Amino acid sequence: MSTGDIITLNVGGKLFTTTRMTLLSESESVIGRMFDLSSPIPPAKIINGAYFIDANPEVFEVILDFLRYKTVIIPSKIPVEAVLVQARYFGLDDLILQVSERDDVQKVKVNAGGTIFETTRRTLTQQPGSALAKSVENGESEIFLDVCPKAFEILLNFLRSGARKIPPNTNVCTESIGSAAQLLGIDICLQSKKGPGYCKIVWSDDRRDKSRFCNCKMLGLRNHKNAPTTDDWMLDD
Questions:
Q1: N vs C: which end of the chain shows fewer Cβ within 10 Å?
Q2: How far apart are CA 101 and CA 97, in angstroms?
Q3: CA-CA distance, 35 to 78, in Å (whole number)?
Q4: Which of 111, 117, 109 shows the shortest CA–CA distance to 147?
Q5: CB 49 within 8 Å of CB 8
Q6: How confident is the model at residue 237, as a pLDDT?
């Protein structure tokens, strides 16, 4: 036996033919060590001349192509998370890294109250524990959010750049910004040095000739508190 051996795999009932060299291309992975002739890890059980692997064959096809070409190609019908689960099982760290990096910049179409926005998964997951981030955690490329589209546009710019501003000529109800943020689980505030439960007044409304600051109540965050003096919420504390 050698690295040039032709090997047949039975993956969940579907037969695949490959070479031992391909299976060893990620030598430190579980699947690599399974077929390494010098490894103490025994190979899969042979059934009717094929090594049996109990896995989803459609997902394994992605895995096998990665071992062949070192490139990840995931058909639209296969959830990204399904590929990651199998990659973790087989210990394919490079594949996981490729999928994660590509996933971050993958475009997502967001229908917010009937208005379409395009952004990246990286932007939508800026706050990982939020409801917004969870809405794309399974590789979704399109999502619907029942929120004010104008408020969402402002929140999207906040996630992209960190800017806490209502731009000029923006026809939006100020309270809808906080309402949308709470629905999506996005934290748009900064804690004041006064302590937990108190927020800095950091949002500015640039829709008038002269900009003004917006407190939490104005933003619709009625369960938030603002410190009573500028000394408690100034930006450079």
A1: N
A2: 6
A3: 26
A4: 111
A5: yes
A6: 45
User: What gap in Å lies between CA 135 and CA 144, rounded to an integer?
Assistant: 9
pTM: 0.59
Tell me: the pLDDT tens digits for 129-164?
Answer: 999 999 998 778 899 999 999 999 999 999 999 999
Residue with tokens 């369960």: 223
pLDDT of residue 236: 46
pLDDT in tens, 22-32: 999 999 999 99
User: Residue 228: pLDDT above 70?
Assistant: no
Strand pairing category for 203-205 and 165-166:
parallel
3-state SS of the chain is CCCCCEEEEEECCEEEEEEHHHHCCCCCCHHHHHCCCCCCCCCCCEECCEEEECCCHHHHHHHHHHHHHCCCCCCCCCCHHHHHHHHHHHCCHHHHHHHHHHHHHCEEEEEECCEEEEEEHHHHCCCCCCHHHHCCCCCCCEEEECCCHHHHHHHHHHHHHCCCEECCCCCCCHHHHHHHHHHHCCCCCCECCCCCCEECCCEEECCCCCCEEECCCCCCCCCCEECCCHHHHCCCC
65 HSE (CA, 13 A, CB side): 12
d(CA 188, CA 207): 19
Percentage of the chain exceeding pLDDT 90: 60
User: Given a cut of 70, is residue 17 above it in pLDDT?
Assistant: yes
pLDDT at position 1: 57
